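The step that takes the researchers longest sounds almost clerical: writing a folded protein down as plain text. The outcome of that step, for a single protein, is printed below.
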Amino acid sequence: MKIDVIIPIYKPDEGLFTLLDRLLEQSVPIHRIILMNTGREYFDALIKENEFAHRYPKAEVHHLDKRDFDHGGTRREAVGYSDAQAFVMMTQDAMPADRHLLERLVEALDGKVAAAYARQLPDAASSVFEKASRHFNYPEASRVKTLEDLEGMGVKAFFCSNVCAAYRRDIYDELGGFVRRAIFNEDMIYAAGALQAGYGIAYEARARVIHSHNYSNLQQLRRNFDLGVSQARHPEVFGLAASESEGMRFVKGTWSYLVEKGQPHRFPGFCVQCAFKYAGYLLGKHYESLPRFLVLHLTTNREYWQK
């Protein structure tokens, strides 16, 4: 099967070379690596384009202005450059944990599976809260989710992550692809459509990437503001299941994790972080009631609001 990898990049550093090297060392060959670079000046500051092309002949770079980036539209444009039967979406800060990442992801695109996403592991510098989050959201057991799982899993049934996920191109085209405009959650919106069309979404725990962030409380608030906006703007998806119940499961799961790790004293700090997250989420869900200056102050994606 021909496989392309698609990676939006912004202000790349030397880590981009490490990522590309690890992708080219995968156990299955990559046809092309399509890079959607926001801000040509940042790319040029890292490396000259002709030098980059010589070093990575399988990579192609498409430049766009920051005002033109969109979580859904930019990825949709990138898929248009691909002619592969399967494409893998990644982010520039996700690092393959081994040589079998792509092989295992593509293997999971079996039968009526429309997409398969990888397990995300925390790096060594991750906080205990970030490790708990990865433990909760990316367990050791693989599974395939269908619409029948909506009642038991709630909004988690739609979960899929373009940090690292493989897609079947034939099903992608049939479903109409990623939404053209999205502030966040373009992957979950697509996954929800796939489930409603009778397809499955696979979580492939054997496909592993290292990816985590130690966000401050304010950063968590702003990220969850955008998450709330995306849910408010797509009631056809997120109106099918409440997200709040999933949040409560996460709180309980984190308490159990902290107890297991002998750090229950960290739970009050986790509760503070949750308060920031929930405040951001609620503000985002009700963004239409907020003055524009506050929306622009809260969002992590000001360009989205200026289109």
